[in-house]
């Protein structure tokens, strides 16, 4: 069974809640450590982002017993790679040569989109992206995720749930 298949099986199987929670918590901890290492060594992190899968995993804090979790890490970062289409996760084994060409702005945005505060609030981001870039990416994320409501007619029920017409309730002061 491939590491990726193991990752998918274990990360989606919640039949034993205790084992599932332990597995996901281990993933989150290892993911955070890997990102801290990658970000803290930027721009001199090429040795962490290129090489054989098993060597890269070891450098990022994953061992032989957690290669499936490493594939989960790769699955998570894949959409933030400039060369993400070149990475076939199903085919990754210990000797697969991997090169991760990270688009750091996209990675930051994707971390926000995943609501992974433990990742997008890492202090190392300040050495990669300027305050202005972080603010702009945050603004783009918020703009893309604003909830839009349809216009409320004067005679429609008020959306506050009072049961009154909008014009007699919340629309009274407009």
Topology overview:
Layout: H1 3-12, H2 17-40, H3 46-49, E1 50-52, H4 53-59, H5 67-77, E2 97-99, H6 104-113, H7 117-120, H8 131-144
Antiparallel strand pairs: 1-2
Helix pairs in contact: 1-5, 2-5, 6-8
Relevant terms:
elongated, two-stranded antiparallel ribbon, 174 residues, single chain, mainly alpha
State the gist of this model.
The chain is mainly alpha-helical and 174 residues long.
The strand count comes to 2
Secondary structure tally, helices: 8
Quaternary structure: single chain
Average per-residue pLDDT, rounded, comes to 94
Class per helix and strand makeup: mainly alpha
Low-confidence stretches: none
Largest sheet: 2 strands, antiparallel
End-to-end distance: 63 Å
């Amino acid at each position: 069974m491939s590491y990726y298949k193991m990752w998918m099986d274990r990360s989606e199987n919640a039949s034993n809640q205790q084992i599932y929670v332990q597995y996901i918590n281990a993933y989150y901890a290892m993911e955070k450590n890997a990102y801290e290492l990658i970000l803290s060594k930027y721009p001199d992190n090429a040795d962490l982002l290129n090489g054989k899968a098993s060597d890269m995993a070891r450098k990022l804090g994953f061992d032989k017993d957690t290669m499936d979790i490493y594939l989960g890490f790769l699955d998570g970062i894949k959409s933030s790679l400039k060369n993400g289409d070149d990475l076939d996760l199903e085919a990754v084994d210990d000797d697969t040569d991997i090169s991760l060409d990270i688009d750091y702005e996209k990675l930051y945005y994707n971390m926000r989109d995943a609501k992974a505060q433990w990742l997008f609030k890492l202090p190392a981001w300040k050495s990669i992206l300027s305050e202005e870039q972080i603010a702009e990416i945050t603004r783009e994320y918020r703009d893309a995720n604003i909830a839009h409501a349809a216009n409320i007619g004067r005679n429609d029920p008020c959306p506050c749930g009072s049961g009154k017409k909008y014009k007699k309730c919340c629309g009274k002061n407009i």
